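hey can u check if this looks right to u? its 204 residues, i copy pasted from the old doc so theres a chance i mangled smth
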Amino acid sequence: MMKKHLLILSAAPIFALAACGGNSNGGTDAMNSGDTVTNVPAGETMGDNMGTMNGMDGNAMTAAPMTGQDFANTVAASDAYEIAAGKLAQQKATAADLKSFGKQMVDDHTKSTAMLKTAAGKASPAITPAPAMTDEQQANLKTLESATGTQFDTAYKSQQVVAHQKALAAVQAYAKGGDVAQLRDFAKDAAPVISKHYDMIKGM
């Protein structure tokens, strides 16, 4: 009887290792099958970026579906960043198309903020978006504030490509499986607009 117990105990670590290995490989496969982030701004490592893609400092798409509050906060922070960055682009960009893009970001994301508040307010219970920017978004704005000339253009475009990748991933994910109907509808309406922005900035 003792030998039987010992055999069972000795086998337990093997099963535990196999389970960990399975989870690890599964996570690796999922990561490898996902979209790669390109045009990562200087000074931002891929590790930082992947962490932000998965958590966005607590505000972006995660493995588990975001709650309605999390999603509202994510969009509100994204809108706040886009509006601030767009205003800087209008003032500092040397390329006319980037100045124009910056103005469009201010206009479109101001509308997005209003639509988000309306949708969140219709939820039951009502949701109040918290537009607190992430550490990454704040750092990106500081980079834009200190950059001049064509360096600003390069930094702004690079940031916008990555920001729109993340925003598009977040709204598409919530549109498919979000827990608040009003915010799912908002996400479905927002996705094509963000996709258009993404295509525009990639083409500049």
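Helices lie at 2-33, 46-55, 68-92, 96-122, 135-146, 149-177, 181-202.
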